[in-house]
Amino acid sequence: LPFLFGHYSASMHFHNSRNGSASYTTPNATIQRIYFPVVLLLLMFTPSVDSSWWYIGALGARVICDNIPGLVNKQRQLCQRHPDLMQAIGQGAKDWIRECQHQFRHHRWNCSTPERDHTVFGRVILRSSREAAFVYAISSAGVVYAITKACSQGELKICGCDSQKRGKTSDDMGDFDWGGCSDNINYGIKFAKAFVDARERMVKDARALMNLHNNRCGRMAVKRFMKLECKCHGVSGSCSLRTCWLAMSDFHRTGDYLRKKYNTAVEVTMNQDGTGFMAADRNFKGTTKNDLVYVENSPDYCLLDRTAGSLGTAGRVCNKSSKGMDGCEVMCCGRGYDTMRLKRVTKCECKFKWCCAVECRDCEDIVDVHTCKPHKRPDWLDLT
């Protein structure tokens, strides 16, 4: 911990002894006597927040493999070998983080990302909760989507369209020829598995197993929504002949699917032999193969708790008329809300003017904005 010890490296500390003579202690003695207990306490009670490859999204075009915090050796090797793929993953990271925030925009935990934080999501990700399960799944899905998309668009040297989709086949509408540019989803899954899972495969504990499981669920979610797109040929568009290809659906469909899986996530415990896990509820029937899994309960996101990574809901905008998660009663955790009356300017009475413009008028209206009250301090705190 150089930030604790560095101040003492170039100085010695003098003090007066009882007989009036000057004496001194060496820096090492001072450190051992004063700071070692502090360091031990820090190590015992402060969990480390590891950096993550997720931070690639914040680097943009400045991706330099040796400077990306949180990469393990295998990830760094893949980065050095395929720098163009890292650019795609960096752009994909922005997309899946945005999707995460879209899915939870009306919830107490809203997938918030502290600024200049190499962990991206802060301490909340330390807990093996259902929120962590969703983040790992959506991030893994985001890598698959980004790589597959880049392959099909010809942005990567190592891959292109799915060359295995050739010849004739059929569906409910009849026969068709494979053609066009089918998305190479299998390559996207293969690379995502190698890159994203690399850190988790270095350890064998409940959290690593949980992350690996949710990573796989995220990858498979993208493949689940592959769709058949076709182009018709024939006289007057009769569609007597069709050329078809497989394409990924919009990433929002993957986000919606994983969000539903978050709602039904299964709490699990690790097997005694450490090779897998089972549902914590003994009455659980079925398999967790396609479910998100978590190990610990979520923290209370109502209150600010820096140790748990919770930002609380004070100041969050809520919907007064809603009975759902975005409603003021739920969002504000029963603390009540403040109302501000604001003036809003919007475009209205738009008319098309020949040729070729649209003219609008600025309209003003008054809207009420409701925000959650802060948590009330106990009265006894105000007396101390």
Which regions are unreliable across 5 or more consecutive residues at pLDDT < 50? Answer: 1-49
- How helical, in percent, are the residues? 25-40%
Compute the number of structural domains. Answer: 3
Given helix and strand content, the structural type is alpha+beta
* End-to-end C-alpha gap: 35 Å
Radius of gyration from the CA trace? 28 Å
Give the neighbour order of strands across the main sheet: 3-4-6-5
Q: Given the C-alpha coordinates, what overall shape results?
A: globular
Discrete helix count: 11
Summarize model confidence as the mean pLDDT.
82
Number-wise, the strands total 14
Strand content: 15-25%
Described by strand count, sense and barrel closure, the largest sheet is:
4 strands, mixed
Sequence of secondary-structure elements: HEEHHHHHEEHHEEHEEEEEEHEEH
Main attributes?
single chain, 384 residues, alpha+beta, Endo-n-acetylneuraminidase fold, three-stranded mixed β-sheet, 11 helices, globular, disordered N terminus, secreted, Wnt2, glycoprotein, Wnt
Could you describe the 3D structure shown?
This protein is an alpha+beta fold and 384 residues long. The chain has 3 domains: 2-45, no CATH class; 53-311, no CATH class; 317-382, Endo-n-acetylneuraminidase fold (2-Layer Sandwich), CATH 3.30.2460.20. It is 34% helix and 21% strand. It contains 11 helices and 14 strands. The chain has helices at 2-5, 27-45, 56-59, 73-81, 83-103, 130-152, 185-196, 206-224, 251-263, 328-331, 379-382; strands at 13-16, 22-25, 168-171, 174-178, 227-233, 241-247, 266-270, 277-279, 293-294, 304-305, 310-311, 317-318, 337-353, 357-372. A 4-stranded mixed beta sheet has the order 3-4-6-5, with no helix packed on it. A 3-stranded mixed beta sheet has the order 8-7-9. Strands 12-14-13 form a 3-stranded antiparallel beta sheet. Helix 6 crosses helix 8 and helix 7 packs antiparallel against helix 8 (206-224). The longest helix has 23 residues, at 130-152. It is globular. Residues 1-49 have low confidence and may be disordered.
